[in-house]
């Protein structure tokens, strides 16, 4: 076997393990992550709770934070009195303002 080829294969394996690769959505779901909702900044917070063992797999399933997204301090839910009876799980959250 050609030593240069063997060396190239070894380097490829090392680089792939260091850089890591993203897992598919199915693989992420199988290990308990929801990649559509998981942002990478949350993975970085795992070290605060001494959960470094989860960080590598988390980083393989996360998506980059959207820096253009807005955060709001509150939300207002408007509803129709005639339909609120159909949604008892929401009725408990509603407070009549007027």
TrEMBL record:
This is Salivary selenoprotein-like protein. The keyword Signal applies. InterPro entries: Sep15_SelM. Coiled coil: none annotated. Residues 1-20 form the signal peptide. It comes from Euroglyphus maynei (Mayne's house dust mite). GO terms for molecular function: oxidoreductase activity. It comes from the Eukaryota. GO terms for cellular component: endoplasmic reticulum lumen. The lineage of its organism: Eukaryota, Metazoa, Ecdysozoa, Arthropoda, Chelicerata. Keywords: Signal.
